[in-house]
Amino acid sequence: MEISKTKLSLYASLRMPKHRRRLGLFVAEGDKSVADTLGFFKLEALMATPRWIAGNPGLSRQAGERLYECREQDMRKLSTMTTPPDVMAVYRIPEPKAEPRIPRDSLSLVIDTVQDPGNLGTIIRTADWFGFKVIYASRETVDVYNPKCIQSCMGSMTRVEVVYCDLVELLSSCPPSLPVYGLQLDGKDIFGAALSPVGVIIMGNEGKGISAEVRDFVNSPLLIPPYDAVSHGESLNVASATAITLAVFRNLNVMKGK
User: Which tens digits make up the pLDDT trace of 134-145?
Assistant: First the structure.
């Protein structure tokens, strides 16, 4: 079935977060993203070129009546990529499963105003690797359903839920005895600090770090020190810093038999 101009215009509007929120829809672009997500989310439409349909009969049958044949110029109108893909899927945004509540008996990951969708996608992928099923994010954090975020997730968004919430309210509910870790320039060397297998890890904005109101809850500041104290870059990318931090904490859990 060919796609109508009305649907083409509707799905093209999903590039903008306000339209994704209004319509309750998001887009996955390209073979890998579609293969990773098809079957995990409620499918609204699968749009593909005749070439892709001919080469993927199984996935085409799975889409059924929601499969739309599109010309390359149609895909160009729909896609956010420089080179438009041969396939795109439109899904319903699922209802939240996890509640904005910090558990007291495990390690939680919180992100504060991360703005780059590629960084968020990589953080989700890293969290998935290290066994985190939920990430708590400030409402100012970039939309998890941004197409670039979905591409960089590499399918991890099917296993990790991002819960957007007021971080001040979230952290206010934590007991005073729970360690709240935050990456700060005045923190203790993460490789030598006494770390707990339970608590909260907060990662901040790419340029400004953790916001002042959230920083007030940090009771155990940490620092990833540069190898060369004299000559080094200005800072670590937040996704890279998250990967190092989670690796250190998970290694702690392994060493303690958790």
Answer: 999 999 999 999
Which numeric CATH code is attached to 107-255? 3.40.1280.10
Give the torsion through C-alpha atoms of 11, 15, 19, 25, to 10 deg: 60
User: Which residue's entry shows tokens 């890279």?
Assistant: 240
First to last CA, the chain: 53
Contact present, 214 and 167 (Cβ < 8 Å):
yes
pTM of this structure: 0.92
> Could you say which architecture CATH assigns to the domain 5-92?
2-Layer Sandwich (3.30)
The angle, 0 to 180 degrees and rounded to 10, between the axes of the packed helices 238-255 and 117-129 is 10
Rounded CA-CA distance 211/102 in Å is 19
Reported as type and span, the H/E element at residue 19 is helix 17-23
Q: What is the DSSP letter of 204?
A: -
pLDDT, tens digit, 9 for 90 and up, residues 52-80: 999 999 999 999 999 999 999 999 999 99
- Residue range(s) in the chain whose domain bears CATH number 3.30.1330.30: 5-92
Q: Where in the chain is the domain with CATH 3.40.1280.10?
A: 107-255
